[in-house]
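Table 4 source record.
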Amino acid sequence: MFQNIWAYDEHNEGHLFETLECYFKNNCDKLKTAEELYIHENTLRYRLHQIEDVMDCDLKNVNTITDIVTALKVRRMLQILDKV
């Protein structure tokens, strides 16, 4: 699910995956996410638009949100299991 974002970040230093994780960690609160990432809210909006373009998705769609949150949680669980 995240291959396109990782590839984009690798070639463009876009910080899109970090932004996506932070955005959902903060329950899609743009102000809180921008503060945590130390970026302007307009920069966050730009990154979210880039994420939608790169992933070909709509971050306002409930099904998309559910898929991304689930994938992020599974990824985190796998990272934890790798450390055990």
